[in-house]
Structure prediction request, 237 residues.
Amino acid sequence: MIKPFAYSLSLLVCLVSFGQDLEPRSFFFTAGVSYSDPSGELVLIRGTRKIVRTNFSAAPSYTIKFGKRLNQNSELSLSLGYANYTYENKEDYTDGFKNYSSDDFNYIPLYLNYDKLLDVNSWQIVLGGHAGIAFYGKEVNLLSELHLLGTPVDQWPSHPDMFSPLDLEIQNNLGIGIHGGLRRDLVVGRLFAELNFSATYTQFVAKILDDPEDDGDEDVNLDTNPVDVGIQIGYRF
Prediction:
């Protein structure tokens, strides 16, 4: 996703070099990067054997957007984003043993955006909402066991139950949120920059696969609410 983002910025620069037509254009394209915090934490109790706490870490988020000016004060656009979040598992066993591991997963939102524009001097205030699908599409070992990490059997601590992996399949889901920003033209009618923020509600749905303990655990549902702050560079055509 990083390479397409870089190519997009290069394309904007090339397009500007073809002329300085000041006439406002109906269509626009933007590309940008944000600091994204998924705001997710999960606590899962595995019977009487252990408690697992999973914390998700912030990451850069890249977004491209194609849109159209509907009228003087509103826009409609389609955006595609990408972020690679990491998470850390802290496993606390009832006999005092602790185990730590980490992994990552992708977050790819495809959203329809509607924005209202308000002119304030040489700036535009952008306020809007978005809704669409958040793609995860990955199977992970959310709870890592010692034998998955290659620990020899003779070094395993004594536990009341046998070791068992728990595989989770992250499923795609819907997302909805609000966003806003401050926009300013760099080349009037053509190139612009926008400082923006967004807050989204999505639910991390992880389906438990082949649970060997068969202890009645249900699918894991975790609200992941990404909050992004970043910058976009746009071009009208």
Remarks:
- DSSP finds one helix and 13 strands in the chain.
